[in-house]
């Protein structure tokens, strides 16, 4: 005697939704563009919220005291900034940060699914959508392009956030761009090509920036994507705010651990106006010799606070904007 089993309607709908996703409908160019817009808007929101934490992290990474020194703690750095430079000092580099997020995060997050779809199609199914390899390759492509193109805005952001005992040499973001460009034109690195030297100054540290962008995107976007997939696939959680929050919490921790060392190198190179550091490897060696290996985790607590906050806000906003624009969840 056979037994008739009746599945709840919600389970049937969920199964149908998963099958539709597995069929891999290719989004239109308009949908890809809207994903870019959603990514840029969500990361601008997150960057605005976390800017105070970002500037404190930069100040910590530029200090050369013994690692773990009490006066290098994030609360001490923040209190000192407010006392000596005023509360608005915690929003320095804000405009440059917004410009950076449009280019950098708009591409690294917004183009992530574009590269996933294109690489999946190019592999003719050899790279499965459920596998981590496809995600890592897609993140590498989107992050490399976004990081390289956004490097000038990153340089300006870091320069404006750095501490200057005699006052900031930059009146505003436009003045900072012009100053750094002229600095490159007049440097010995220009070698008779001043305009080229100016552009080289704006793209200083691009190697570290790109490596950091790739490492951060793989550990942040891929982990978010993978955690969502696992939790949803095993029926532990359904699509919605709790799932987005859980996945973004883990993603924020992972990307903070992996990206902090590269971030320290990037910040040191970008603020090296006197060209005392001759590239990424020389910077790494200098830090190791003068400050020890733990120097690569200077500012980690604030990095985690900043990246954790940024990750949660950006992904929650990203998913909500996708819903508002009628785009499927990531």
Automatic annotation (TrEMBL):
What membrane topology does this protein have? Multi-pass membrane protein
User: What are its GO cellular component terms?
Assistant: membrane
Keywords assigned by UniProt? Membrane, Repeat, Transmembrane, Transmembrane helix, Transport
- Residues crossing the lipid bilayer are none
Q: Which domain of life is it from?
A: Eukaryota
Question: Any keyword Protein biosynthesis?
Answer: no
UniProt main location, coarse? membrane
User: Mind telling me which Pfam families this protein's record contains?
Assistant: Mito_carr
What are the ranges of the Solcar repeats?
Answer: 30-118, 130-230, 239-324
Q: Where in the cell is it found?
A: Membrane
Q: Which PANTHER family match?
A: MITOCHONDRIAL DICARBOXYLATE CARRIER-RELATED
Similarity field: Belongs to the mitochondrial carrier (TC 2.A.29) family.
Name the UniProt record assigns to this protein: Mitochondrial carrier
What is the source species? Phanerochaete carnosa (strain HHB-10118-sp)
